[in-house]
Amino acid sequence: MQNSKVMQEQISPREIIEGLAQSLCENYVFPELAQQIAATLRQRLADGAYDGILDADQLAKVITEHLYELSHDKHLRLFYRPEGVSEHIREDQSYPAEEIERIRVQGIEQSFYMKKVEILEGNIGYFRFDRFMHPYFAGENMQAAMTFLAHTRALIIDLRYNGGGDSSMVQFLCSYFFAALEDEQVQLTGIYERKKDLLRQQWVMPYVPGPRYLQKPLYVLTSQNTFSGAEDFSYTLQQLKRAYIVGERTKGGANPGFKYPITVNFETMIPSGRSINPISGTNWEGTGVTPDLAVAAEEALDVAYRRAAS
């Protein structure tokens, strides 16, 4: 097997665990917990927990399971990349040129993850997209969708299949549902960053292209697979009482982070920040976003549509 060959000839579990432990201690948003996780992983390595695992994908899966067992953080993961680790966004949030081009091409190939925009009977808008891409890449498409939906009498945003993405797009889209001038002092959320020891706040943007969607009902559909940035969008608008959430409790990942290389073929996702909502003072980490109306995910659209059309 190719993976086994990689494991035997290039990679040792000790190298991976040591690199992972060091990166955790340097970057994880909870420093004390990082030390505890690192110590436990090293002990498990010494006890032979990773002996005999010759498949690289399997090793990454086992270590990820241990990371979750110790942290209960669904963003904290280890990945095996047979093609080599990806280009990484630097922690100053600037993008290497190669990464910009990769994201742009991926966005075009996936139509920027925008799956369906339509007007249902009764002038009810429906918008499904499955990823929050940075406005630099997907802003024009988001504007086009919101312009098309602007004159509906209610709007349903379907995040049942959305696994998250960039917080800048969360801020961008949220801003369409609040008035310019009147709501510019409305804080949407905040993210505590460990490295800078500061709280980065996000507010309603003073300008978005195209018409805003104001004073009309907004429904957000969720499922057990709704995650990360999609949860941020749902939770933020729920706390501000601007959206009605219909569906299932979401997956529960509120700690944003970065990917860090461990070896040439292994990289880790480590949350370096923590979301803090200005209203609740907390977030949805580990608990998920609780819907205002709990229904099975497959029933959520029908339920929301009936409420919007009534």
Automatic annotation (TrEMBL):
Pfam family, one: Peptidase_S41_N
Gene Ontology BP, a term: proteolysis
Domain Tail specific protease: 107-296
GO molecular function, one term: serine-type peptidase activity
Protein name: Tail specific protease domain-containing protein
Species this protein is from: Ktedonosporobacter rubrisoli
